[in-house]
From TrEMBL:
Pfam families: Sdh_cyt (PF01127). Belongs to the cytochrome b560 family. Its main location: membrane. Keywords: Heme, Iron, Membrane, Metal-binding, Transmembrane, Transmembrane helix. It is a multi-pass membrane protein. InterPro entries: SQR/QFR_C/D, Succ_DH_cyt_bsu_CS, Succ_DH_cytb556, SuccDH_FuR_B_TM-su. PANTHER family: SUCCINATE DEHYDROGENASE CYTOCHROME B560 SUBUNIT, SUCCINATE DEHYDROGENASE CYTOCHROME B560 SUBUNIT, MITOCHONDRIAL. Membrane-anchoring subunit of succinate dehydrogenase (SDH). The chain crosses the membrane at residues 20-47, 67-85, 106-129. It comes from Bradyrhizobium campsiandrae. Its cofactor is heme. This is Succinate dehydrogenase cytochrome b556 subunit. Part of an enzyme complex containing four subunits: a flavoprotein, an iron-sulfur protein, plus two membrane-anchoring proteins, SdhC and SdhD. The complex can form homotrimers.
Length: 133
């Protein structure tokens, strides 16, 4: 009889060496979940605006104007930008491109850096045109 080799039945996280690509694929899923939660805030704002009630709208504005509210909206903006760019990265892979090691790394870094840069750029523009008070 041959000796039995003890190994996992399926790949486990402990087996693989963590890579940026792996981490950002997980972050892509997490940002998808965060977008659901942030969309509730967006819906609250839209409903308050559509209701015609100044009190309802001022409640939303008071929340989003607070420090915690601005952090949440900033995080929502980043989640949206990151999820979009990461989705483009996955789409490129679905088309059959970008599988070489250097291409994978380039796409991954582009999604990571691009999400941060776009978020900051959006907020700079929003403050510059007076959309954020």
């Amino acid at each position: 009889m041959t000796a039995r080799i003890e190994r996992p039945l399926s790949p486990h996280m402990q087996v693989y060496r963590w890579t940026l690509t792996m981490a950002l694929s997980i972050v892509h899923r997490a940002t998808g979940i965060a977008l659901y939660v942030g969309t509730l805030l967006l819906a609250w704002w839209l409903i308050a605006a559509a209701s015609g009630s100044a009190a309802a709208y001022s409640n939303v504005q008071a929340f989003t104007g607070s420090i915690i509210g601005r952090l949440i909206v900033f995080g929502y903006t980043w989640a949206l930008m990151h999820h979009m760019l990461s989705g483009i990265r996955h789409f490129v892979w679905d088309l059959g491109f970008g599988f070489k090691a250097n291409e994978r790394e380039t796409l991954t870094w582009a999604a990571l850096i691009g999400g941060v840069v776009l978020t900051i750029l959006i907020w700079i523009i929003a403050y510059a045109i007076g959309g954020v008070r």
